[in-house]
Write a structure and sequence with these properties.
The chain has about 375 residues and is α/β, with parallel strands linked by helices. Helix content is about 35%, strand content about 20%. It has eleven helices and 15 strands.
Length: about 375
């Protein structure tokens, strides 16, 4: 491995609380080693299309540039979930969108920027891209970011704790209004294929029903839980559902906007199914992108610092094509190939599922 002089940081996919804290940790740790640090704008766009940015595709990161950013949500570098260099959306001469492999353009851009290594912050999609970038001969280390907590190989991803805490608080706030109006309140949270946010927030927020993608639900069981509470004088019910939850024999619900399909709408679908089955009024609250925003929790901020510093230590030690992973009480490095083979879903024999059942929480089965 050649000696490192300049590194780049990229943030890809959906934003998550803690991104700026990782950027600060990487920058400070790299400067301590005498390296120059540059932020790549909007995923890899900053090196593939530097001319599209008025002041260039790279941001020079020094101590001043990262001062006071750790508590901020979002990312100072910008991000995109449509910037896969190996399947990039490009408008053709006829205005139609084509998908092209721009990997050569990516490598040329990194070389032009004289970057010796890349620290890539992202979720499963970004880590899969990082894995392919490594195969092109680029030194790269991944840092696991996703509010969904579904990246394999790490006990936790940064961003999850903040989302989980916010969802728990929202569920707690709904108890009083649901009780006052004797309503069923359905809280829809993010969680495509893994129900970590819904399960953790639902249990912590004492929701009466928790629905996750890993356990297809029977709407009759959900309705029975509502009516059981009514008979017992508890004339309101809180339901927490992941956006990827689905009924037995059914499919996840998608909404199409601008030709793009995104998960969403399961909360209202459940509400419609319940309205003919229960005596309560039913209302739906969709937390959506609120879960991504705001100040990271102390736990997420510390985890971000640990991951960022560990990424720099890994580069210094000559590591590449790996992802930093939490393995309490420390961090470790796992091959990118390993963490992109599958997603981390809720195991049905985990103690949180057992706890939910012991507390009388209905899981829809």
């Amino acid at each position: 491995m050649s000696k490192i002089k300049r590194i780049g940081i990229t943030t890809g996919g959906g934003d998550a609380p803690g991104l700026n804290a990782v950027i600060r940790a990487v920058t400070k740790s790299a400067i301590k080693r005498g390296w120059e640090v540059f932020g790549i704008r909007n995923g890899f766009d900053g090196v593939m299309y530097p001319d599209k940015f008025p002041d260039g595709g790279l941001i020079k990161l020094d101590s001043d540039a990262v001062r006071g950013i750790s508590h901020m949500g979002g990312t100072i570098l910008g991000t995109t979930n449509r910037g896969n260099p190996f399947n990039y959306q490009v408008k053709g001469p006829d205005g139609k969108v084509e998908k092209k492999n721009l990997s050569d353009q990516l490598v040329d851009g990194i070389k032009e920027a004289k970057l010796d290594a890349i620290v890539s912050l992202g979720g499963d999609g970004s880590m899969a891209i990082a894995n392919e970038v490594a195969k092109l001969g680029i030194r790269i280390i991944g840092v696991p970011k996703t509010i969904d907590n579904d990246l394999a190989g790490t006990v936790a991803t940064f961003g999850f704790d903040t989302a989980f805490a916010f969802a728990t608080d929202a569920i707690g706030r709904l108890h009083s209004t649901a009780s006052a109006h004797q309503r069923v309140m359905i809280v829809e949270v993010m969680g495509r294929y893994a129900g970590w946010i819904a399960l953790y927030a639902g249990v912590a927020g004492t929701a009466d029903v928790v629905l996750i993608p890993e356990i297809p639900f029977d709407i009759e069981k959900v309705a029975a839980k509502v009516e059981e509470r009514n008979r017992n004088g508890r004339n309101f019910t809180i339901i927490c559902t992941a956006e990827g939850a689905m009924p037995i024999g059914g499919e996840a619900i998608y909404k199409e906007q601008g030709g793009i399909k995104n998960l969403g709408g399961i909360g209202e679908a459940i509400a419609e199914d319940l309205r003919g089955r229960v005596s309560n009024q039913v209302r739906t609250v969709v937390l959506g992108h609120l879960l991504r925003g705001g100040m990271p929790t102390a736990r997420d901020r510390l985890l971000s610092f640990r991951f960022g510093a560990a990424a720099v230590r890994g580069l210094e030690a000559g590591k590449s094509s790996v992802m930093v992973a939490l393995d309490p009480p420390t961090v470790k490095y796992i091959p990118l190939e390993e963490c992109t083979k599958r997603i981390k879903v809720v195991q049905l024999d985990c103690d949180t599922i057992a706890t939910a059942r012991d507390l009388g929480t209905c899981l829809g089965d």
